[in-house]
UniProtKB/TrEMBL annotation:
Domain Response regulatory stretches: 24-140
This protein's record includes keyword Manganese: no
InterPro entries membership: Bact_response_regulator (IPR050595), CheY-like_superfamily (IPR011006), Sig_transdc_resp-reg_receiver (IPR001789)
4-aspartylphosphate modified-residue sites: 74
Biological processes, Gene Ontology terms: phosphorelay signal transduction system
Protein name: Response regulatory domain-containing protein
Keywords: Phosphoprotein, Transcription, Transcription regulation
Length: 165
C-alpha cells in the first residue's frame, strides 16, 4: 500500500487499532488516582496492556524488563522528574527512540518547554479519551501493513459464543 493509499485508508476508515501500535504501554504517575483515571481512558481506546509505576526510578527499571511501544509519564513527580527520566532514556540505546507522552497539570512555561523539547508529545491534565487518542496517534509510528491487514479482518468475523456445561 502506498503512502497516499495509507493516508486515504486512515482518514476514511477507523479500523487500524491504536492498541496494536500502543501496546504494551507504560504509565508513570506518582498519583494513584491519576493512574487509575488514565488507565480507564486508555482502556476506552482499546489499550489494555498497560503497566503502571509510581515513580521514575521504578519506571527506568521496568523499561529494562519489558519492551514498550509508548510511555505516558507525568512531568512533575517527587524525586526524579518525568523530564529527567526522558533524558536518561534518550541516553540509553535501548530506550533512545521510545515515544514519550508527557502529562502535566502545570501551566508553568518551564515545564511545558521541557516537555516539548524532550518528549514526542505532551498533554495537559485533565484530558479526555479523545485528547489522549489524538496525542497518541501523533506520536506513535504509522500503522504497518500488518496492522492494517489485521484491522481489516476485525469486526468481519462471525461472533462465536462458547458455553461451558
Amino acid at each position: 500500500m502506498s503512502i497516499p493509499e495509507l493516508d486515504f485508508y486512515l482518514r476514511d476508515n477507523e479500523h487500524v487499532s491504536l492498541s496494536r501500535r500502543a501496546e504494551p504501554a507504560l504509565l508513570i504517575d506518582d498519583s494513584a488516582p491519576m493512574r487509575k483515571i488514565v488507565e480507564r481512558l486508555l482502556n476506552q481506546l482499546g489499550i489494555r496492556d498497560v503497566d503502571q509505576v509510581s515513580d521514575a526510578r521504578a519506571a527506568f527499571q521496568q523499561l529494562h524488563r519489558r519492551r514498550y511501544k509508548v510511555v505516558i509519564c507525568d512531568v512533575v513527580m517527587d524525586g526524579v522528574t518525568g523530564i529527567q527520566l526522558v533524558k536518561a532514556c534518550r541516553e540509553n540505546p535501548e530506550t533512545a527512540k521510545l515515544p514519550f507522552l508527557m502529562m502535566t497539570a502545570s501551566m508553568d512555561p518551564r515545564y511545558l518547554a521541557q516537555a516539548k523539547g524532550r518528549a514526542e508529545g505532551y498533554i495537559l491534565k485533565p484530558f479526555t479519551a479523545e485528547g489522549l487518542q489524538r496525542q497518541l496517534q501523533e506520536i506513535l509510528p504509522a500503522p504497518t501493513e500488518d496492522d492494517i491487514q489485521a484491522s481489516q479482518g476485525r469486526g468481519h468475523e462471525p461472533k462465536v459464543e462458547r458455553f461451558r456445561f
